[in-house]
Amino acid sequence: AIGGNGKVTVAAASFAGTLATRIVLAPPRDPEFKGMVERNNRFFETSFLPGRSFASPTDFNGQLADWLVRANQRTVRSLGGRPVDALEQDLGAMTALPPVAPATGLSSRVRLARDYYIRLDRSDYSVDPRAIGRLVDVTATPTSVTVACEGAIVAEHERSWAGGVTVTDPAHVQAAKQLRRDFWDQRRQAEADARHRHRPEPGLVVEQRCLGDY
């Protein structure tokens, strides 16, 4: 994350340092501070986005990459030429990326509810029901969702970018059915054991009073 509270996070500042650069946070409600960025965004909104739909960030990036090949052929007045002609010069001036990529994605820790699903971005993902009631660590990347409990993987799913989707692993459903069967078997056995403990022993002689005494 970049920030959100008026300062750059440690992770973002550290990554910027490996690139021999620094991050400047733009003041709120001041689009003129980053005028070039705003102009580029407006160009994308009017020339790239209309009429398109995207299934995921990967799909978005793929369509954008294909479109940029054509868009970079146009003449840009501020450059005095085509962006594609300046690409080689720009690449030569760029610093090499660090050997270790920064940590990306979302991570959180939640307690797994009895329905054995965790929620991420308005979609639900199933988890091994044997982790119900325990703390699980959820890690999400643009393409996957992984859930771990005490270091062991208890769920792996392809990430869905459609809202309101329920993603279920059939193995988790079968495990939940087996746990329910085991629960009811144990309950019936406990009830049978309780009845057996309160049942009189067979052949036990119980003294009865003569009816004539009444």
Automatic annotation (TrEMBL):
Pfam families: Mu-transpos_C_2
Signal peptide: none
Residue intervals of the Integrase catalytic domain: 1-91
A biological process term (GO) from this entry: DNA integration
Name of the protein in its database record: Transposase
Phylogenetic lineage: Bacteria, Bacillati, Actinomycetota, Actinomycetes, Micrococcales
